[in-house]
Design a protein that fits this description.
CATH superfamily: STAS domain
Number of domains: 1
Number of helices: 3
Largest sheet: 4 strands, mixed
CATH class: Alpha Beta
InterPro entries: STAS_dom_sf
Protein name: STAS domain-containing protein
Order of helices and strands: EEHEHEH
Strand order of the largest sheet: 1-2-3-4
Distance between the termini: 29 Å
Radius of gyration: 12 Å
Strand content: 25-35%
Structural class: alpha/beta
Helix content: 25-40%
Length: about 90
Amino acid sequence: MLDFTLKQQILSITGALVTEQVAGQAPSILTDFDKIDLAGVSEFDSAGLAWLVTFYAPLGCEFINLPSSLRKLADLYGLTPLFEPS
């Protein structure tokens, strides 16, 4: 299960960003933040990466505390610029 916490304009996402968790799901929070903290994400797959890119990258927010697995997937798919600091 994914959990979303908003505090001081930082959206923290915890849980597994994998197919089973994100398929057909829209995020519960899409406003009032400028950073997304991914430190609490336990695992990723390509569906989780696509979910982040689809829902959050267009908002222009900064992703912080990226797990190494996300960095590797972003590199593989040529999406690294979306996850670099502003």
